[in-house]
Design a protein that fits this description.
Blueprint (H helix, E strand, L loop, with lengths): L17 H12 L2 H5 L1 H7 L6 H26 L3 H8 L4 H32 L8 H9 L18 H19 L1 H28 L5 H9 L9 H14 L6 H6 L9 H33 L11 H15 L3 H35 L3 H20 L4 H31 L3 H11 L7 H28 L6 H23 L31
Helix pairs in contact: 1-9, 1-13, 1-15, 3-13, 4-5, 4-11, 4-13, 4-18, 4-19, 5-6, 6-8, 6-14, 6-15, 6-16, 6-17, 6-20, 7-14, 8-9, 8-15, 8-16, 9-13, 9-15, 10-13, 13-14, 14-15, 15-16, 17-19, 17-20
């Protein structure tokens, strides 16, 4: 797997310490899905009973796959293409597949952050008025009416979306140009505490609103019969998987910026449980607010619509804010939190792309960030600041996440555990540098549980998309925007594998040595 020569690459950037790494990893994991996805998924899948499969999924899939990412990045010292090539040359394409996933996600993820910035400003005057749905899709997004003959793709730009989107890209590029310690780490040290404080204030206020108890009862009252439904368990594994930022390069890249002798498992547990803790906080805040809205409208919480996804954030929650005492303040807290959560995740996503290009093509950090950022910004503006931006975002997100990322995770586990048999080496690495030791149970999780559950999810999703389409969208449109996204991911990964490396990643020795060697041979060279 590795040669007997030493690594000739320049010294790698590093986080300043464990706290900086933990904050950055939490900042990546805590994103938009924690706020707008977890509460609705929990409510629709057994309420309080959902916590049982959720915790089991965290312990048997979330944490094990997080450890897998950490071990890969820390041992083989690079972004996904470098790491997977150092494991086995032909595996480099999987690394570029993860880079392509990150690139595609970044170009639409930035648009949602732009929406949050707009609504942060609108909060101070409650600009959305009484018809929040009409304002979001009509006045704000100016969404094309495809149901009545409107075009599926236009270049009719919407200034209210375009301007904040450009600001998001300027801020993202500025942070990444600063590097790992002075850019990414500093941004997370600032924004993550602000996010926690702002959202906590919002949650505390929400639980004292009239009707909040009804909302919390709706969320946490257990439906134990749901535990007999396989789909509930799949939803739990899906929520854990998507919310932890695993299996598509982020945690591989971040862990590669840690010092050689750096604890991995303890910080990993902190990151995993912090992410889940924030999801619980979001669930309390969101459903307390929904209980208040139901109380004000004189309906049951079960009768409310739009309790998950963008509709929750940009339609339902503005309606809540409009009726809250001191609504403008709490609207600003909510949308400010949404923007900060999204921003810390976006910089982690784009760093994967930047690292991949820096390492393969010998680019400086500044040149890689500026070129990649410029291309991503142009595609982001063209694709998602127009009157068809929401439709494109919804479609591309579905295929890149539910098919692309899940396929990446399944391939990782099958190749690394079953085909190449690298799991003993990776477990050895985790235990050699960490305080919390990883037992043999980890083999079962990453070799059996994760690939089995995710393969089921992947096949089920593909069959459903083939048979039923998606959201009633035009079949031809889905062929290009949906399945075409997968083609772009695969073709891009293959094409990026073909060029020669500016500096060979193969002149590398992984440390600590595996299998363990005698002390007399450890002086023959070690990788940086």
């Amino acid at each position: 797997m590795s040669t007997t020569t030493t690594d000739t690459s320049p010294p790698r950037e590093q986080f300043t310490g464990q706290v900086g790494f933990i904050l950055s990893a939490i900042g990546s994991a805590v994103g938009l899905g924690n706020i707008w996805r977890f509460p609705g998924v929990a409510y629709e899948n057994g309420g309080g009973a959902f916590l049982v499969p959720y915790v089991i999924a965290l312990l048997t899939a979330g944490i094990p796959i997080l450890f897998l990412d950490y071990a890969l990045g820390h041992r083989f010292r690079g972004g996904p293409p470098t790491v997977f090539r150092r494991v086995k040359k032909w595996l480099e394409t999987l690394g570029w597949f993860q880079v392509m996933i990150c690139f595609v996600i970044a170009i639409y993820y930035a648009a949602i952050i732009g929406w949050a910035l707009s609504f942060f400003v609108y909060s101070f005057t409650l600009k959305w008025g009484d018809d929040t749905a009409g304002f979001f899709t009509g006045d704000y997004l100016q969404l094309s009416d495809v149901a009545n003959g409107g075009s599926w793709f236009t270049l009719d730009f919407v200034p209210a979306v375009l301007i904040p989107l450009l600001l998001v890209w300027v801020a993202t590029i500025a942070v990444l140009v600063g590097g790992v310690a002075k850019g990414i780490e500093k941004a997370n040290v600032i924004f993550l505490p602000l996010l926690v404080i702002a959202f906590s204030v919002l949650v505390v206020r929400a639980i004292f609103l009239d009707g909040a108890t009804d909302g919390l009862n709706a969320l946490f009252t257990p439906d134990w019969s749901a535990l007999g439904d396989m789909n509930v368990w799949i939803a739990a594994y899906g929520q854990i998987f998507f919310s932890l930022s695993v299996a598509f390069g982020i945690m591989i890249t971040y862990s590669s910026y840690r010092k050689r002798r750096a604890n991995l498992t303890s910080p990993g547990l902190v990151v995993a449980f912090s992410n889940s803790g924030f999801e619980m906080l979001a669930g309390i805040g969101v459903f307390a607010a929904l209980g208040f809205l139901a109380h004000e409208q004189g309906v049951a919480v079960a009768d409310l619509e739009g309790i998950t996804g963008p509709i929750l954030s940009f339609v339902t929650f503005p309606a809540v804010v409009s009726q809250m005492p001191a609504g403008p303040l709490f609207g600003a807290l909510f949308f400010g939190s949404l923007a900060m959560a999204g921003f810390t995740s976006l910089i982690s996503i784009l760093q994967v792309v930047s690292a991949g290009f820096q390492e393969k093509f010998g680019l400086t950090r500044r040149k890689a960030v500026l070129w990649i950022g410029a291309v991503a910004a142009v595609l982001s503006v063209v694709g998602f600041s127009t009157t068809t931006g929401l439709i494109a975002l919804d479609t591309i997100d579905n295929w890149s996440n539910n098919v692309g990322i899940v396929a990446s995770a399944v391939l990782m586990c099958v190749f690394l555990v079953w085909l190449l048999r690298t799991s003993p080496e990776l477990r050895y690495h985790l235990n050699a540098v960490s305080t919390v030791q990883v037992g043999r149970w980890w083999y079962v999780c990453v070799g059996v549980v994760v690939p089995a559950v995710l393969a089921y999810m992947l096949v089920s999703r593909i069959v459903d998309l083939v048979q039923n389409g998606y959201e009633g969208y035009d079949e031809t449109y889905l062929l290009y925007a949906g399945w075409g996204t997968l083609v772009v991911l695969v073709v891009g990964a293959v094409l990026l594998t073909l060029p020669r490396w500016r500096r060979s990643p193969d002149d590398f020795v992984a440390w600590p040595y595996f299998p363990p060697v005698t002390a007399s041979t450890t002086t023959k060279g070690a990788a940086r």
